[in-house]
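Work Package 4 report. The design task specified in the project plan requires that, given a folded chain encoded as structure tokens, an amino acid be chosen for each position. We show below one input record used in the internal validation round.
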């Protein structure tokens, strides 16, 4: 009986209500947690951006564990959005990547040249193949004529860019797959005599398809940015048509172009026609 006259009730404490014992601070971390911590330290040191993080085999040997333990560490990092895993390529840090594309102009091109060393390139397909009808119409050739086809994965600051390119058949003999993995395709094309008169760029977004999901390390249906770029000659025929796909939430595009005298005259005409 309480002092105020009301009866008190004893609360029965069930086993499920009792606070669960916490781990002793002296107890060692599980192996997967140790590996996860090691990977986070590597990431803080700048690894996993242009080059992939250590493979499962490498880490399993280093820590004397099986690959499933290493995989668990990577899966925890992937689930928290820290890394993306790409089949056949490796695991990379998820960073915001900006692909700078110089269209024309000295200043933009020189800035792009300074930055191109941070890109990792992996050629997936490089071959002569019959030209699809839609691309043939742009290139003003017959459907089915042979063209050079390139499929590759570029890694910029840990973010994947999945490329598909259609080019003239002569390029297949002029440029090798090994050269494409070592250097910029645009520079190689210019060195080989590629001489476009103008370029058009279109960008839109769509849900990731199966091949984009596999190559970019994202789920099917996740947002993907698609950039379509077409270089044309003076006749208006396409010399080069390409598509680039990248994760929509992790990437952006930056473009630079030269204000040529003709373009300046056109801008002044537009301004005169729209004084407000």
């Amino acid at each position: 009986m309480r002092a105020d006259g009301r009866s008190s009730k004893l609360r029965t404490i069930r086993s499920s209500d009792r606070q669960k014992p916490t781990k002793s601070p002296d107890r060692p971390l599980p192996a997967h947690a140790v590996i996860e911590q090691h990977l986070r330290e590597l990431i803080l040191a700048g690894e996993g951006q242009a080059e992939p993080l250590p493979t499962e085999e490498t880490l399993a040997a280093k820590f004397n564990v099986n690959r499933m333990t290493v995989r668990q560490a990577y899966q925890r990092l992937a689930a928290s959005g820290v890394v993306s895993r790409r089949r056949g390529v490796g695991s990379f840090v998820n960073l915001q990547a900006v692909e700078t594309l110089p269209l024309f102009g000295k200043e933009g091109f020189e800035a792009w040249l300074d930055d191109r060393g941070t890109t990792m390139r992996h050629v997936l397909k490089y071959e002569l193949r019959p030209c699809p009808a839609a691309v043939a119409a742009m290139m003003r050739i017959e459907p089915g004529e042979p063209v050079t086809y390139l499929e590759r994965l570029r890694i910029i600051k840990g973010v994947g860019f999945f490329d598909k390119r259609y080019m003239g058949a002569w390029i297949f003999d002029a440029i090798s797959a090994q050269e494409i993995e070592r250097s910029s395709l645009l520079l190689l094309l210019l060195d080989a005599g590629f001489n476009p008169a103008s370029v058009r760029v279109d960008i839109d977004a769509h849900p990731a398809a199966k091949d984009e999901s596999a190559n970019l390390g994202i789920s099917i249906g996740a947002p993907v940015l698609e950039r379509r770029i077409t270089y044309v000659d003076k006749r208006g025929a396409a010399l080069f048509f390409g598509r680039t796909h990248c994760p929509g939430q992790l990437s952006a595009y930056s473009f630079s172009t030269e204000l040529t005298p003709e373009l300046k005259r056109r801008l002044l005409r537009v301004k005169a026609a729209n004084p407000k």
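Residues 197 and 233 are 5 Å apart (CA to CA). Validation will be extended to a larger panel in the next phase.
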